[in-house]
Amino acid sequence: MALTQAGDKSSAQSALQQWREVERRSKPGSERWFKAKYYLAALYHQSGNDARAIQIIDVTRELHSELGGPEMAARFNALRKQCRPCGRRCAQFRSET
To answer: How many angstroms from the chain centroid is the CA of residue 77?
Structure first.
């Protein structure tokens, strides 16, 4: 999906903007809303902003503990495990020490 695999900064910003619009226009808790939340978090993760991705996932989980059902919850959980609380700098620091 073009809105999830942004290759450059401009494309990434455009994809984020479009997923924000999908989120805004979707009923909270709907399948479309969860998909928008997931792709927003995924795009932030891809761009190196793991802290923002974690925030989106964790707040979504607080508001809707089922995370949109088993399939969507599995996707959120897998993405959450890929994120580092301090971002890519944390991984770089660990490899340098």
So the answer is: 11
Q: Read off the pLDDT band of 87 (50, 70, 90).
A: low
Residue among 71, 85, 87 at smallest CA distance from 38: 71
pLDDT at residue 91, as a whole number: 52
Question: How many other β-carbons are positioned within 10 Å of the β-carbon of residue 39?
Answer: 22
- For the range 38-43, what are the long-range contacts, defined as Cβ-Cβ under 8 Å and sequence gap of 24 or more? 38/72, 38/75, 38/76, 38/79, 39/1, 39/3, 39/4, 39/15, 40/16, 41/76, 41/79, 42/4, 42/79, 43/4, 43/6, 43/12, 43/15, 43/16, 43/19
The pTM of this model reads 0.81
